[in-house]
Every structure is written in structure tokens, then in C-alpha cells.
């Protein structure tokens, strides 16, 4: 598995599906960014909780839907309407939420104990969303299967994740900064929506490409 090849294929998918990706992600992040903007300007425990909950659920809904977009392309089907991808993902949202929480807890424990176990966990469990969506696995089989697929390639997968996260973080910062001249609420809402719609799909596509390559190998 070559890191550059996975990134190139992910970028090719991103360009090919740019319009559809922006719609699928943008509709969700329009709500997520609104909650985040409200939490920033009207800071209370309630707004903070709602913002965090929507960010987690919305992010998983977008990732799951985008995995399904790539799945259709990979299996030779034409892309479906955005609402169909939300419908497919909604039925798996509980499993996605459970795996995301366990992933966060496991990685956090790994970093608390030692940095290296946390990094290994990041790599070994990186495919749980594609596995939940494409192979329809539960949370335990998804973790086990992801570990099996990545094992033996942990260093390269970790490198791919780090590079992808750096690229998306820089792109997010640039897009949010472009709206920083607006009032705080509007800069947060518009900037968050645009950044989510344009940046999140790339990361989702890279991880889905990685899944298909490792499965084929």
C-alpha cells in the first residue's frame, strides 16, 4: 500500500464527486455549524452540550453517507440523491455512534498510558466507519476486522492518517479565516458550514479508498 497512491485516489474521488459531496456534507454542517456558532456567542452548558452532540452525530452521518457514495461508485452504481444516503446511514447511526465513543475512549486511554499505544489504536481502528457501513458489522466485529486489515501496515496507515489530518486542518483553518471579518456568529456559522462541506469529504474518501485497498490486499 502506497500512501501517495491512496491520497491521489482519494483526491480523484473528491474532484469527481465534488458537487455531490458538498451537498451531502453541507446540508448537515449547516445545522452543526449553527449550533457551534450559537454555543460560541451564547455560551451555556445547554448550548455547549447541543453543539457537541450535533457535531458528533452530524459528523458520523456525513462520514457514513460519503462512504456509501464511494461504495456506489466502486460497485458500478450511479450516485443516488443525498436523501437516500442519509436514509442508508440513519439505520447504522446507533452502531456508528457506539463505535465512535469506544474509539475515542480507547485512543484516549492509549495516549494516557503511553503515546505509542494511542497512535497504534488510531491506525488499527481507522476503518471502523467503512466497515460498519459497507460490511454492516456491529461495533465489536468492526474493531476486530479493522485491526486485522491494518495489521502489518500500521506505520503506513498512521502516516496516511497524519498527513490527511494535517491537510484537512490547514484547509479548515484557511476556509474559516476567510470569513473571520464577519461578526462572530456569522463567521462561525458560514465558515463552519463551508469548511465542513468542502473538507470533510476528502478525509472520508481517503479512508474509504484505504479500506478497499486493504481489503483487496
Structural account:
Helix content is 85%, strand content 0%. It has ten helices and no strands. The longest helix is centred in the last third of the chain and has 33 residues, at 184-216. The N and C termini lie close together (8 Å). The chain has helices spanning 3-16, 18-41, 45-74, 82-90, 93-113, 115-124, 128-134, 139-150, 154-177, 184-216. The protein has one domain (3-216). It is an all-alpha fold.
Compact overview of the structure:
With 217 residues, the chain is mainly α. It has helices at 3-16, 18-41, 45-74, 82-90, 93-113, 115-124, 128-134, 139-150, 154-177, 184-216. The longest helix has 33 residues, at 184-216.
The beta-strand count equals 0
Mean pLDDT reading = 89
Q: Give the ordered list of helices and strands.
A: HHHHHHHHHH
Runs in which pLDDT lies below 50 for 5 or more consecutive residues are: none
| Beta-strand percent range | under 5%
State the distance separating the first and last CA atoms. Answer: 8 Å
Task: Tell me the overall shape.
Answer: globular
Radius of gyration: 17 Å
Share in helix: over 70%
Sheet with most strands? none
Assign the structural class, choosing from mainly alpha, mainly beta, alpha/beta, alpha+beta, or little secondary structure: mainly alpha
Number of helices: 10
Number of structurally distinct domains: 1
Amino acid at each position: 500500500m502506497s500512501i501517495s497512491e491512496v491520497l491521489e485516489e482519494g483526491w480523484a474521488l473528491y474532484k469527481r464527486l465534488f458537487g455531490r459531496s458538498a451537498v451531502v456534507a453541507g446540508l448537515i454542517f449547516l445545522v452543526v455549524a449553527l449550533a457551534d456558532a450559537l454555543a460560541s456567542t451564547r455560551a451555556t452548558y445547554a448550548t455547549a452540550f447541543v453543539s457537541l452532540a450535533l457535531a458528533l452525530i452530524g459528523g458520523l452521518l456525513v462520514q457514513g453517507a460519503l462512504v456509501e457514495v464511494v461504495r456506489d461508485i466502486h460497485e458500478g452504481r450511479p450516485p443516488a440523491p443525498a436523501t437516500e444516503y442519509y436514509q442508508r446511514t440513519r439505520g447504522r447511526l446507533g452502531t456508528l455512534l457506539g463505535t465512535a465513543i469506544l474509539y475515542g475512549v480507547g485512543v484516549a486511554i492509549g495516549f494516557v498510558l503511553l503515546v505509542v499505544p494511542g497512535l497504534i489504536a488510531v491506525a488499527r481502528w481507522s476503518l471502523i466507519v467503512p466497515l460498519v457501513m459497507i460490511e454492516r458489522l456491529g461495533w465489536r466485529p468492526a474493531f476486530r476486522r479493522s485491526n486485522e486489515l491494518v495489521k502489518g501496515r500500521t506505520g503506513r496507515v498512521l502516516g496516511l492518517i497524519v498527513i490527511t489530518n494535517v491537510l484537512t486542518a490547514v484547509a479548515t483553518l484557511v476556509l474559516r479565516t476567510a470569513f473571520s471579518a464577519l461578526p462572530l456568529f456569522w463567521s462561525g456559522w458560514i465558515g463552519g458550514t463551508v469548511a465542513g462541506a468542502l473538507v470533510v469529504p476528502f478525509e472520508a474518501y481517503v479512508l474509504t479508498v484505504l479500506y478497499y485497498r486493504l481489503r483487496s490486499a
